Amino acid sequence: MSGRPAPVQMRDLIVERLTGETGNPDHVLDTARACAARCAPDIARYFEEELGTAIEIELDDIEICRMADVRLPEGSFGAMMVATAEISPDALFMTLDPDAITIAVGALFGADSEQTLAPIARVPSEIEIEIAAKIFDAVAKIFNGSGERSFGVRFPLEEPIVGEEIGIHAMRDGPATRIVFELVFGENRGKLTVALPQRVLIQLRGDATASTSAPAGVWRAKFNEEVMRSKLPLTAAIPIGEMTLREIAGFQAGQVIAFPEQAQSQARLTARDKVLFICELGKLGQNYTVRILQPFDAHEDFVEGLISA
After folding, report:
1. What per-residue confidence (pLDDT) applies to 1?
2. What is the pTM of this model?
3. pLDDT at residue 20, rounded to an integer
4. Number of structural domains the chain divides into
5. Which residue has the higher pLDDT, 25 or 9?
6. Average pLDDT over every residue of 100-128
């Protein structure tokens, strides 16, 4: 177990666990619009020059969302990609729906834009995955930028996530911004979606709209102040170990259940169903108390659970 953190670290831990790192919605959207406006022409140029296709790129929508909401649904025949970076393991998340993959492949191999292309209704083939990978690579490089404001995306990217892997791929949830581009090929339309965690977007692009939005330090201070004023119910619970269903079914009114020897020092303090701290139950005068021992470490708890199983 690590040592007891400072009060400031405890505060940041609580805020991150309860809400994730978010920004002022207007500022986040302004920043995302500025980023999308910068990248859209370069994405269109890539399709025109590198792939030699007549696909047009239109900015469809920009919205605030959760990172988990952006992933493709289980059973989708599209493709998705998570780009890692120096500052975040999920700095950039991209998806291509089945219509977009069909458009890219069809246009690349000379399909007639006046014909309606049927989206793929199966797991993408190797050629389709390769083309999707090239698109993801190009889009990631365009969004990555350069210099001090670069996201620091690590290249080469991993292989696109397709098929059954879409449903089982683990993603860290949190506040994000979704930017949706439409691939237009005649009457055919598909969607290329790019999502960025708000913490990444604001950290590296937050000054892009300084003239229309408050500085990052201002809204961050205001946000923290509002969070600190919020009231949340806290619950302290003592784990009493495991029992069989037979033992539980045999409980009787008035029965006494013994706590394990170390139970009082293993109480867990939770808020909104999230475990925040490991605590110790005690008594001060006539009042029962909870003393914080250390922040809850989900990874260590999982490992200890495996060892003790």
Report:
1. 45
2. 0.62
3. 47
4. 2
5. 25
6. 93
Question: Is residue 275 within 8 Å of 294, Cβ to Cβ?
Answer: no
Mean pLDDT value across residues 1-15: 55
In a domain, 1, yes or no: no
Residue 219 placed within a domain:
no
Tokens 């909104």 found at:
272
132 and 256 share one domain: no
Residues 206 and 239 in one domain: no
| CB half-sphere exposure, 163, CA atoms < 13 A | 9
Amino acid at 81: M
In-domain check, residue 67: yes
**Buried b or exposed e, range 70-96, using 16+ CB within 10 angstroms:** bbbeeebbbbbbbbbbeebebbbbbbb
Average pLDDT over residues 8-17: 54
Domain CATH code at residue 277: 2.30.330.10
Contact in structure between 182 and 164 (CB atoms under 8 Å): no
pLDDT of residue 8: 59
What Å distances lie between residue 145 and 63, 139, 266, 276, CA to CA?
21, 10, 47, 37
Tell me which residue has tokens 């994000």: 176
Which position has the token pair 């001060």? 284
Query: What pLDDT does residue 195 have?
Result: 95
pLDDT digits (tens, 9 = 90+) for 46-92: 998 877 778 999 999 999 998 888 999 999 999 999 999 988 888 89
Token reading at 121: 């209704």
